Amino acid sequence: MLTDFYENILNSPTSVEHDRSSFQLAMLTLKQAIEKHDVKDLIVRMNTPESADRYKQRQHFGEMPFAVIKACFDMRRFLLRGLAGVQAEWQWCCTAFNLKKLMNLLAALRAEQCKLAKIEE
Questions:
Q1: Both 1 and 44 in a single domain?
Q2: In-domain check, residue 117
Q3: Rounded to an integer, what distance in angstroms lies between the CA atom of residue 117 and that of residue 109?
């Protein structure tokens, strides 16, 4: 899957335009890196069984909260300075994560209740 992605980028046409988006520029940079064999070695390494086993460790359930905080909440760095500010910001972020988790659980319960109600009718 990852190899196909890189191959598609490698085979895509590149034309120099003045109005490129940042995504197109990133893809062009990635294509240039692939052409320089920087990424091809990585693709070969990642297709080995040892790499797959090591990468599975990154999918541990303890990593999920930090992935959500980073991706969904876009919290990659603290905005406040000082220990008190960072602690307050982290508590707000953890509260938001817990509320998001609670909302997902409530939505699943509501969906289950609707499914049971339809079966009883």
A1: yes
A2: yes
A3: 12
> Which ranges in 1-121 belong to alpha helices (H)?
2-11, 22-35, 40-46, 49-56, 64-71, 83-120
Contact criterion met (CB below 8 Å) for 82 and 58? no
| Spatial distance between the Cα atoms of 59 and 33, rounded to a whole number of angstroms | 27
- The span from the CA of 9 to the CA of 40, in Å, is 12
Q: Is residue 66 in some structural domain?
A: no
pLDDT bracket for residue 18 (50, 70, 90): very low
Report yes or no: 28 and 14 within 8 Å, Cβ to Cβ: yes
Q: What is the pLDDT of residue 17?
A: 47
